[in-house]
Structure formats: C-alpha cells, structure tokens
Known about the structure:
The complex is a heterodimer. Chain A is mainly alpha-helical. Chain A has one domain: Amino acid/polyamine transporter I (Up-down Bundle). In chain A, 77% of the residues lie in helices and 0% in strands. Chain A is built from 14 helices and no strands. In chain B, helix 1 (2-18) packs antiparallel against helix 3 (28-50). By secondary structure, chain B is mainly alpha-helical. The longest helix of chain B has 23 residues, at 28-50. Chain B has one domain (2-52). The interface between A and B is medium-sized, with 30 and 34 residues.
Amino acid sequence: MNVLEITSSRQIVIIGLCYVFSATLVTWPGQILRLARQDAWIGVPVCALVMLAILWLVNRTLHAHPGKDLLTLFVERYGWFGKCLVAGYVLVLSLDMAKDMRLGTDFVNVVFLPRTPAILIAVLIVATCVFMVRGGIEIVGRMAELYIPLFIVVALCAGLLLIPDLSWQYLQPFFEKGVIRPMIGIWYALDPIGNIMILPLMFSNRHYTFRQSCIALLVSCGFLEFVLIICQLNLSSTLAGHFMYPAYEAVREIRLTDFLDRFDLPIVGLWLPTIVIKIGINLYVICSALQRIWPAADARTIVPAVGAWILVFGFWAFHTSVEVISVNDVWPSMVILWWIVIPVLACTGLLLMARMQRSRSMHAS
Amino acid sequence: MILLMTQAVGLVTGLVLLQWREWKESNRVTRVIYSVCLLSAAGMWVLSNTLMFTHTTFAWLPKFSFAG
C-alpha cells in the first residue's frame, strides 16, 4: 500500500480537510450548541491554535527524521513500546471508524431509506471503502479531490442563501455565564480539530509539510466555524441543541423555486461521499498501522477482513447513532490523550534522540 | 441462532472465496491477521445478536451536569 509517491500536495491538504469536517457536520453542531450555547464559536479558533502548535512540533520531528511518518518512527525508535502505541492507535481509529460508519448509516436510514435495513446500507458503505483503500491512497486522494471542493462550494452557497434568515441577536449576550460555556465549546471543538493529526501518521516529510497542515487546519476550521454560526444564527442555539442533525435542518430551510424544493438532496448527495472518504482514510491508516506492527503482513490483502471486522464491531458497539452521541460527549478525552499528549511526548523524545545522535556524530568526527 | 450462524459462515466463506487467489499467494502473517479478523467478526456477529446483554448503551459514561 506504499504508493505515496503519487499523492500530490493538494490531495494531502484535501485529505486533511475531509478528515476534520466530513463526519463532524452530522451531529457536532447540535452537541456543541446544546451546552456551549452562544459562546460555542470560541472553541474552534482556540483549538486551531493549540493544534497548530502541536503540528509545528510534529513537523520539526519529521524533519529531524526524514522520509519517515510518525507511525514508522514510533516502531523504529521505541521498539516494542512503539508497537504497543501503534496498536493503541489501531484501536482508537477502529472505534472512530465504527462511530462514523454508524452515523453515516443511520443518517441515510433516517433521511433517505427508512425501509432499508441499516446493515445493508453499512455493507455498501464499507464495501466502497474497501475498494477505495485497496486501490491505495492515490484513489482516496483522487476521490477527496473530486468531492471535497465541490461540497465546500455548494455548502458555502447554501450558507449564503440563508443570510436573509439569520438573526444576529442569537450570538448575544457574550460570556453570559463567564468562562464555563467557552470552555465547553473548546472541549467539543477538540473532537474534530484534533483529527488533523492523522496527516503526520500517514505521510513523511517528503510529501507532507507544515504549510499543508496549516492550510488544511485553517480551511477546515473556517468551514466548521461557518457551519456552526449558520446553525446558531438560523435555528438559535436552544433549538439547534435539540436537533439530531442541525446542519441538515438548516439546509432544509432553503427553498429555491418549486424545482429545487428539496435543495437538501443535492447537498446531502455531495456530503455522503465525503463521509465515505473519511471512513476510507481511517481504514487505510488502520491497515498501514497493522503493517507497521507486522511488517510481513500484506496490507492490501487484509483490507476486506479488517473492514468486515469494523462493520460488525460498529453494529455491536452502537445499536443506534444516539449511542454515538453519548460517546462523542467524552471523546475529546481520547483526543487529548491520543492526538495531543502522546504525539507531544513521543515527538519530544524523538527530537532529543535526533539531537543526541547529531552531537555524538559531531564528537566522533 | 441457526440463521445468524449461517450469515456468519456466509460472511467468512464469501470473503475467502472472493480473495481465494490472494489468500493462496499470501504469507503466514497475512493469513493469521486475515483469519483473526474474519473469525472474530463472525463470532461477534453471532454473539452480539444472541446475547443482547453484551451490548452497552454507554449510559454509564459521565455527562456534563452544567445546565446553564
């Protein structure tokens, strides 16, 4: 599955964008608005700054160890402990993939195909991901390149069409309950924005630069903030907090002539491939991580088996997507551990190792 | 139970048949990972649908009590 040579710089940015916002748009605006209310918007820029600092540290580490991604570095430099860390990432990403698969399946089940068994929809989603991932990261990148820009443009147009219906007073009063609500906003915003750390797990510094991660992070955060503000100003935080799919409900407000009475359908039609791509990215990283643990394993062959395992695991762990929301409430703790604390500690260790190695070689010469 | 086991067997044999050529050419490590994933998926499918108490609603997870 090592076809990184044909992944372009633009594809890497778009993969990062897709991984941050695609699955987030389903239930996240409702969850953050339910508790953080009018101060929810503060969470996104604060988390973006935190992640920017961590990406800078990770980028310095990748430059100190050229040609290697973070997973490879963990295994090579930390030995069996590194393999345990990578196994931990496999478990976290499996749970994340199961969550996304359940959210996507239930959304299609509720909105489009209420009489079709959920397992059938899930099988179709996972089968698409399996075929995508077996084609390599190039196929994932190309699919992301095709759908993500189109979806962003259409979603931005949908937001602009809603401007006449926005009520700006829903943003006020600022800091009504002090710093509690902004802190809750930061907690929930960590969930999607921490996901940007997937990029250094997938790519080495030969393909991936700090500039790309900055662009991916800033554009995705801007888009998340845009969706959040539109939901808040259109529906109010009180109402949006009670909806399962607030962004979808906001889009349903749009009526463009009789012909485009269901404007939500083309938007959801463009959004669905993005969540499939995100699930595909997860599957790709899981199989690559398994290959890092057992280098003799052929990642391409095990993709269908891993996909089948996560499909069944997703249905066992989450009977409905309501349970995914319960998990999402505490998921930022996993983000703090796996996307912030472990990468920061591991990268600091790797930087120190590189510095010691450099000083030793200087003394030797 | 019989239906669930038939579905599980169908899942395993279906995937192995689809990838039969790859399976024959693959090495031991790949076969072990492949078998563990598929057999655990089949087992989980049968058990999770028969023993419903193994399922969690995640109601035990902590929740924000802030109601402001």
